[in-house]
From TrEMBL:
Organism encoding this protein: Gossypium schwendimanii
GO terms, molecular function: adenine phosphoribosyltransferase activity
Top EC category: transferase
Catalytic activity annotation: AMP + diphosphate = 5-phospho-alpha-D-ribose 1-diphosphate + adenine
Similarity comment text for this entry: Belongs to the purine/pyrimidine phosphoribosyltransferase family.
Involved pathway(s): Purine metabolism; AMP biosynthesis via salvage pathway; AMP from adenine: step 1/1
Biological processes, Gene Ontology terms: purine ribonucleoside salvage
Major localization class: cytoplasm
Name of the protein this chain belongs to: adenine phosphoribosyltransferase
Amino acid sequence: MVEMFAAENGLKGDPRLQAISNAIRVVPHFPKQGIMFQDITTLLLDHKAFKNTVDIFVDRYKDMNISVVAGVEARGFMFGPTIALAIGAKFVPLRKPKKLP
């Protein structure tokens, strides 16, 4: 999975990707048999891997004149504000209907 992402995004050979991958916990058969759930909350425990993740997004989008970053709950709330701050954009959290803002 890391290799495919790297190839598709011009990051082949980038050592940050393996460190990021290693920081993500895989939970087999969750929420049901056959699913390999990628728990990205463990990435937040590794400050270097988290920074590398944000840096990859920032490198990709910093020169695109993006004015607003929208983060979809709940994982988008973890990465969106940090990326928005780094590229000088506003952040808007997106929630499911009938949820508090």
